[in-house]
Design goal:
single chain, alpha/beta, Rossmann fold, Helicase, Ruva Protein, domain 3, Arc Repressor Mutant, subunit A, 3 domains, 5-stranded parallel sheet, two-stranded antiparallel sheet, 14 helices, 11 strands, globular
Length: 331
């Protein structure tokens, strides 16, 4: 690796940084970490928001205290409150013992709430009270619990948009976003791509390396799935490569397609067979956008990620189709 590549260890997670964008972000993290304010991390799926959250804990005065993390999207709605705030025996039919919640486990440390936009509204209200310093009751409990916890939250969804739609509390949004840090997508920091790829390859196949042609393909791809997608691509290439050098043919076909071919390939996989009167690129693009929105139930950010474009580009194209008298309907 080049001397410009920096390697960090945050709570057992290795972070590789070569780009100016990420170096500036980590410098900002060091500044923010010393303060007890809540931090909201934003960014697309797979960009490394958890790594930045761990860095905030690592550089904070709480670094010797507990680090607790939870994905709010992974919990069934009926269990979210119990997981966060704990329960007493008999609180509900299957509660056969008392259990402290994650807030209690993180006392004096840091609690990382990933996918915070998925929290139910009634839990958001209780979370806001705790963030404001109020005590809380475990489910079925009669004793108030008080904790000292630094909150770091993350989301790949635009919380301001959820606030407008009544799905996220405005007061909680502003409380969580005392400081907001945006983690840039991988396509905006191409200097990180090859160092990250080499790091992942070293982890899964220490004796193998990337050819220059393979590196070029990696750098020229848009990486809609970001660092997570890159890690998966390298892991798969290490398995399919029988020799010591990973060449372009060991990488997924999507990396070798130009944008027009990629769009055709996406459309052809969304529904088969396709019945287009003619294979015009604008029709394929319109169809791909429509199907992506259908598959994500109208979620702009997720549809944009599926299409490999930014949310702003998706919004612009929807507006352009509407202004041309060809609005895209996906409900």
């Amino acid at each position: 690796m080049s001397s410009a590549v920096h390697r960090y260890e945050f709570l057992g997670l290795t972070v590789i940084v070569a780009s100016p964008l990420m170096r500036r972000l980590l410098e900002r993290v060091r500044q923010v970490a010393t303060s007890p304010v809540a931090v909201l991390l934003t960014g697309e799926t797979g960009v490394g928001k958890e790594a930045i959250a761990r860095a905030l804990h690592h550089y904070s005065p709480r670094r010797e205290q507990p680090w607790v993390d939870i994905s709010c999207a992974a919990l069934p709605e009926q269990l979210v409150e119990s997981e966060l705030f704990g329960r007493e025996k008999g609180a509900y039919s299957s509660a056969d013992s008392s259990k402290p919640g994650l807030f209690e486990l993180a006392h004096r440390g840091t609690l990382f709430l990933d996918e915070v936009g998925e929290l139910p509204l009634h839990v958001q209200a209780k979370l806001l009270r705790v963030l404001d310093g109020a005590g809380f009751f475990r489910l079925g409990g009669t004793r108030k619990v008080y904790v000292d916890v630094r909150i770091v939250a993350a989301t790949n969804r635009p919380l301001a948009e959820l606030v407008e739609r009544g799905r996220f509390r405005a007061d909680l949004y502003h409380r969580l976003a005392q400081v907001e840090l945006a983690v840039p997508p991988l396509r905006q920091r191409p200097e990180d791509i090859v160092p990250l790829a080499e790091h992942f390859l070293l982890q899964v196949a220490p004796g193998k390396r990337l050819s220059e042609a393979a590196k070029s393909l990696l750098q020229n791809y848009s990486w809609p799935g970001n660092v997570r997608e890159l890690r998966n691509v390298i892991s798969a290439a290490a398995v399919t490569c029988g020799g010591d050098v990973i060449e372009p043919e060991h990488l997924p076909e999507t990396l070798r397609l130009d944008p027009a071919q990629g769009l055709l390939r996406l459309a052809s996989h969304l529904e088969s067979p396709l019945n287009f009167p003619e294979l015009r690129l604008d029709r394929l693009e319109r169809y791909a956008i429509e199907r992506a929105l259908q598959l994500t139930n109208g979620h702009y950010q997720r549809a944009a990620e599926m299409l490999g474009i930014s949310r702003r580009t998706l919004t612009r194209r929807l507006k352009e189709f509407a202004e041309a008298g060809r609005p895209i309907r996906y409900a």
